[in-house]
Amino acid sequence: MTVTLRGMTWEHARGHGSVVAAAEAYRAVAPDVEVVWEYRSLQAFADYPLDKLTDRYDLLVIDHPHIPIAAVEGLFAPLDGTGHDDELELLARQSVGASHRSYSYAGRQWGLASDAAAQVSAFRADLIDAAPTDWDEVIALAEEGRVLWPYKPVDAFSSLVTVASGLGEEPMRTPGVFLRAETLGSAMAVLRRLAALVPRENAGWNPIQVADALSEGDRYAYSPLLFGYTNYSRPGFRMHRLTYTDIPRSRNGARGSLLGGAGIAVSASTAHPVEAIDHAFWLASAAVQEGVYYDGGGQPGNAVAWESARTNADSLDFFRGTRATLEGAYLRPQHPHYIELQNEASEHVTAALLGELDDDELRRRLDDAVARHLGDDIADTGTARTAPRTTEQETSA
What we know:
CATH architecture of the largest domain: 3-Layer(aba) Sandwich
CATH superfamily of the largest domain: Periplasmic binding protein-like II
Helix content: 40-55%
CATH topology of the largest domain: D-Maltodextrin-Binding Protein, domain 2
Strand order of the largest sheet: 2-1-3-10-6
Distance between the termini: 37 Å
Radius of gyration: 20 Å
CATH class of the largest domain: Alpha Beta
Shape: globular
Structural class: alpha+beta
């Protein structure tokens, strides 16, 4: 008798094509298991109540900030202690930066890093010889009108975290404080200058829109901060290929980029926990990630795929070119209320970049959001607690 597993992911070759290709290959591994994937737009997937998704689907591709609230509410099945602990140890060693750790909470593992990403840089090698290496060079190229930068709220927030971390202070590590005034001012000075030099419509753009614009015309040649999409670095995906590279260096080098990516989780409500967990571990394994998952359009979360000569040759060294950034990426606070904080704070950052808030008011609002949503648990270790869950979530990939 065939067991059918239903999965939900997001609408993009990276999110959907990858898992569909893997599901087809899985029939040769487990002939009695069929995995059927559905998808929603990235924002629709983020906004849909998570408990409704876990009621309907066995497998979910999720953003790691959802892990704490899902754990608190018992929505995902823990993956440790299920007969796969040796594989968990191996996947931890094969993690790209903190990707694997980002799916753990309260001493349990609630997801596997099937996709790894952070804010990186992208450029057109046919238009400029090399990407800028620091922020002075970025601004100089922006003054020539050659730069795009997505700064819709969640991306503006991510960029503020990235730039501030590069300057030497990681945001949200002190109770009630988003950033010290000096660091916030220095980071916002960089971002305000950049916002003034890129097209105004970038205030509503996401990384996919910027990648599309970079790859389809010849006017713009570079973006300093956007979540990487290896699809754009491959032959035939768009008119022109993008070369991805590490973020502009600052005081901490290429460290501090906000960690994104996606993971595979198993619903606690599944009627087929053994089969669903087995498939999740298979999907996250090195051979699958480097092979059929990548070939289906995926952006692997396994370091073996990032080190592969084959995947790098096919993608203009996407993985080698951004690996330092991923290894030094910033992990957001693991807290049940974090997404509420991010949603609120993100709007304030874009408003400030549009000239609607000065730095003092921005800092006051950001500090207030940290105090209200995170309390004293900034460096949260995963202590379970009861917490309401927001259904209006922004996500980053």
